Automatic annotation (TrEMBL):
This is Uncharacterized protein (TIGR03083 family). Residues 164-258 form the Bacterial SCP orthologue domain. Residues 27-152 form the Mycothiol-dependent maleylpyruvate isomerase metal-binding domain. Gene3D superfamilies: 3.30.1050.40. GO terms for molecular function: metal ion binding. InterPro entries: DinB/YfiT-like (IPR034660), Maleyloyr_isom (IPR017517), MDMPI_metal-binding (IPR024344), SCP_3 (IPR041629). The lineage of its organism: Bacteria, Bacillati, Actinomycetota, Actinomycetes, Propionibacteriales. It holds the Pfam family SCP_3.
Length: 260
């Protein structure tokens, strides 16, 4: 049975509200740099608005086109990076921090109201192509969680929280994407306590169906979030001891990031 299209909307809204509250307390830092090169807090807030507006509008864009697999959908993000930056900048231009925070509250209310109204299609048009609504919602959860983490340089002692449910959902979605983009069973990737997936790295190599797999990669949820979205590299995390890898194929450097 397909997942209900709105199942993960409360999870997205939980992270969005955390971001709203954090930004409302940091109005004097909207010109500060985030973890994303070239993006200050105002630009990132503009992107959050674009993200939430897209989430609110998606149910009103039903399509009969065949939906793209989530792994393919997110591969279309990278070529559109300049377009996404331009949209974020335009959304934030000439808006004060207070106005942007108010806009964020309005966007959250729009999402809440639209999904509460029901009448949700299974497949919708998105800026990157047709998608199952349930999967599009999951990509918005990833977006909100990773951008919350992108704000950590602004206030290292008090960055936005990453609540358990949004972080867990983001980790699960990213492991699903990894499995879709690189199908196979040569490597098992574990992100305890939230997710695990088998994927293919290199030539087919050995597979496993029971017991301890021959090639295992394991990391914590926040490290996986940063690694999968290109915020940090494989070698850097390995050197920092944030990733354990056993087996001669347990190297994800050739398949990451999944999106950036």
């Amino acid at each position: 049975m397909a997942a209900a299209p709105d199942r993960d909307v409360p999870v997205a809204l939980e992270q969005a509200r955390v971001l709203h509250d954090w930004l409302s307390e940091h109005g004097d830092r909207f010109d500060a740099a985030t973890a994303l090169p070239g993006w200050d807090v105002a630009t990132l807030t503009g992107h959050l608005l674009v993200c939430l507006d897209g989430l609110a509008d998606a149910p009103d864009r039903p399509t009969t086109e065949r939906p793209l697999a989530m792994g393919l959908l997110v591969q279309r993000y990278r070529p559109a990076a300049d377009e996404m930056t331009a949209a974020a900048t335009a959304r934030a231009v000439d808006r004060s921090p207070d106005a942007l925070v108010a806009d964020l509250a309005t966007a959250i209310d729009r999402v809440t109201a639209r999904y509460a109204a029901g009448r949700l299609p299974q497949t919708v048009g998105t800026p990157r192509g047709p998608a199952r609504l349930a999967e599009f919602v999951r990509t918005r959860v990833v977006d909100l969680v990773v951008h919350a983490d992108d704000l950590r340089p602004v206030d290292p002692d008090g960055p936005p929280a990453l609540p358990r449910k949004p972080l867990a959902a983001a980790c699960r979605t990213l492991t699903v994407i990894l499995g879709e983009q690189h199908p196979g069973r040569s490597v098992e990737v574990r992100v305890p306590p939230y997710a695990a997936v088998q994927c293919g790295v290199g030539d087919p190599g050995p597979t496993h169906t029971r017991g301890t797999p021959p090639n295992v990669v394991e990391t914590d949820p926040v490290s996986w979030l940063r690694l999968a979205t290109g915020r940090v590299g494989w070698a850097e995390l390995r050197a920092a001891g944030k990733v354990s890898a056993s087996g001669n194929r347990a190297d994800l450097s050739s398949v990451l990031p999944l999106l950036s």
